């Protein structure tokens, strides 16, 4: 059983873990790949689980790399270790602040508001320029001020 698990993990490593999310200089942004991910107190499955994330797409900051493990920081500032294969190189963002963030038709404060995004809403991050980021939440997309997004900008 253990040998089969080791062989399966080795095959996954050789056949296509998301290398682009693995071999970059830290810090960098990533997002959670699965609906449930264990954050551990150390860089191994032997370490105690400190937290369980249940939010696929949540943006995280990778602050340290150790073999197949990444020390991440979440939007609340909590740090812990996750297996690198559970991180997605696709950039996500989360709305921050106390009030809803307007999602606009264009990257302009005078552009019509399409939707109001509640704090904590997570979406896929597109291009950012001049203080605005394109963001997609479900089937809706538009432009949000970069200062209202955790996961946008320099890590």
From TrEMBL:
Q: Which UniProt keywords apply?
A: Signal
Pfam families from the UniProt entry = SH3_4 (PF06347)
Q: Which residues form the signal peptide?
A: 1-21
Q: Which organism is it from?
A: Qipengyuania aurantiaca
Task: Provide the SH3b domain boundaries.
Answer: 27-90
**Recorded superkingdom:** Bacteria
Q: Which InterPro entries match?
A: DUF1058, SH3-like_bac-type
Task: Name it.
Answer: SH3b domain-containing protein
Span-the-membrane segments of this chain are: none
């Amino acid at each position: 059983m253990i040998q089969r698990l080791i062989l399966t993990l080795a095959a996954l490593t050789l056949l296509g873990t998301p290398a682009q999310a693995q071999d970059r200089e830290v810090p960098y942004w990533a997002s959670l790949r699965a609906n449930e991910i264990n954050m551990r107190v150390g860089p191994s499955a032997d370490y105690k689980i400190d937290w369980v994330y249940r939010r696929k797409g949540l943006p995280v900051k990778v602050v340290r790399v150790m073999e197949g493990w990444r020390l991440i920081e979440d939007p609340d500032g909590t740090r812990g270790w996750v297996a690198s294969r559970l991180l997605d190189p696709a950039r996500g963002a989360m709305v921050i602040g106390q009030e809803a963030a307007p999602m606009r038709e264009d990257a302009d404060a005078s552009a019509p508001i399409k939707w109001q995004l509640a704090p904590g809403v997570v979406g896929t991050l597109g291009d950012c320029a001049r203080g605005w980021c394109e963001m997609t939440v479900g089937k809706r997309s538009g432009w949000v001020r970069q200062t209202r997004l955790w996961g946008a900008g320099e890590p």
